[in-house]
Design a protein that fits this description.
This protein is mainly alpha-helical. Helices cover 59% and strands 7% of the residues. It has helices spanning 2-33, 51-58, 64-74, 93-104, and strands spanning 76-78, 81-85. The protein has a two-stranded antiparallel sheet. A hairpin with a 2-residue loop joins strand 1 and strand 2 (81-85). It is globular.
Length: 107
């Protein structure tokens, strides 16, 4: 029984790791497509907060996806100190929602 449980846990971890890798690749692709990488990176602070910080800040918050979509499209200031994010109206609603979902899925 222990061997089967161990095999199951390893298999689950592998599937979970693949899903996280796919999510990170999808987010990276959307970031490059929409020029987000000019100010943001997933795991390193650039001009704006790293996306892992954003994920932590909004984790479990009701309406977090909608909040991030609005911030992507309209811009904002004051949440991360003096950093200001200019509006990004050229980002499609679908891309903004996908990025928000993927950002919030980061651990």
């Amino acid at each position: 029984m222990r061997i089967l449980t161990g095999v199951f846990l390893v298999a689950c971890a592998a599937v979970s790791s693949q899903a996280v890798g796919a999510d990170t690749e999808a987010l990276q692709g959307l970031m490059q497509k929409n020029n987000c990488t000019a100010c943001h990176l997933i795991e390193k602070r650039k001009y704006g907060p790293k996306f892992k910080e954003v994920a932590q800040k909004y984790a479990g918050e009701p309406g977090a996806v909608e909040t991030l979509v609005a911030k992507i499209k309209a811009g904002g200031a004051g949440v991360w100190g003096e950093d200001m994010m200019p509006p990004q109206p050229q980002v499609s609603d679908a891309d903004a929602r996908a990025m928000a979902d993927l950002i919030l899925s980061l651990k």
